Amino acid sequence: xxxxxxxxxxxxxxxxxxxxxxxxxxxxxxxxxxxxxxxxxxxxxxxxxxxxxxxxxxxxxxxxxxxxxxxxxxxxxxxxxxxxxxxxxxxxxxxxxxxxxxxxxxxxxxxxxxxxxxxxxxxxxxxxxxxxxxxxxxxxxxxxxxxxxxxxxxxxxxxxxxxxxxxxxxxxxxxxxxxxxxxxxxxxxxxxxxxxxxxxxxxxxxxxxxxxxxxxxxxxxxxxxxxxxxxxxxxxxxxxxxxxxxxxxxxxxxxxxxxxxxxxxxxxxxxxxxxxxxxxxxxxxxxxxxx
Length: 291
Ligand SMILES: NC(=O)c1ccc[n+]([C@@H]2O[C@H](COP(=O)([O-])OP(=O)(O)OC[C@H]3O[C@@H](n4cnc5c(N)ncnc54)[C@H](OP(=O)(O)O)[C@@H]3O)[C@@H](O)[C@H]2O)c1
Description:
The chain has a single domain (3-220, 247-262), classed as Alpha-Beta Barrel (TIM Barrel). Helix 2 (65-75) packs parallel to helix 4 and helix 4 crosses helix 5 (139-151). It contains twelve helices and eleven strands. The two termini are 28 Å apart. Strand 8 (125-130), helix 5 (139-151) and strand 9 form a beta-alpha-beta unit. The chain has helices spanning 32-44, 65-75, 79-82, 106-120, 139-151, 165-174, 190-194, 196-202, 227-235, 240-249, 264-270, 280-289; strands at residues 3-5, 12-14, 18-19, 49-51, 86-91, 93-94, 101-102, 125-130, 155-161, 177-183, 206-210. The strands form three sheets. It has a seven-stranded parallel beta sheet with strand order 3-4-5-8-9-10-11, with helices on one face. A two-stranded antiparallel ribbon has the order 1-2. The chain has a two-stranded antiparallel ribbon with strand order 6-7. The structure holds NADP nicotinamide-adenine-dinucleotide phosphate.
């Protein structure tokens, strides 16, 4: 698989990563053995960026469920293979009663990061992303705490998620930010309009599109009944999902989609997006279809 730089970290990762969320949420959550099999399959297929979060769980009685799965899968690998992997996790959301609630208080972020270290079974987290800005907490305090955790060696690199350009600018005044993770897919083209895509590429930040196929509930129906998508898919012998990921990759050299998967077949299909070359005219056609 072609690789891309993970922002300014000096790390190269496969152009397609793995979003691990479907391994922990309902209804896609597989058995633990199957989930570990999916993670190992992704790694064996050449994926070396895995995106997770402490909040990928059913509710706050099992915070860290997704990270524990990844930690277990990693512990079953020989050290030389483990060292090649980049696990990107996040803190700043909590799951009371299964809801998604922001908590960017410094004491929470510190406790969350330390819990993530335990769940993943690592001494330092390669990429720690602030999951979503909490309007009740000054951004400088939340990012300031991540900077402290970085200075202490618990975090190697800091990323942000669900950030607008002005929030990104504020965060960058406090810490070096290497990545931004926002929703971006054929059904959500906000990053092209709100400036986050252009800004991230100009600053050489990695842009990780979340829900790149439209999200767990919609991904499988992507392109259904659309004659142009079906025609392009036939021409390239590719699924609409693979077309969508290749289209996202064309949006910038630092774009690294992280499609979610709870099945090996999804991974087998998605990774080939990294080798799918679409012409300028085909990309323009997709732009029109997915406008
Ligand atoms: N930062 C944030 O706020 C935020 C929010 C949401 C998600 N995320 C991250 O982004 C990742 C991706 O988002 P997502 O999981 O919500 O949505 P998604 O990637 O748009 O869709 C995931 C679904 O797509 C299916 N799929 C994947 N590749 C496929 C293919 N080639 N053909 C057909 N179906 C395919 C998977 O099915 P199977 O399950 O059957 O394999 C999976 O359930 C998450 O896993 C998570 O890591 C971050």
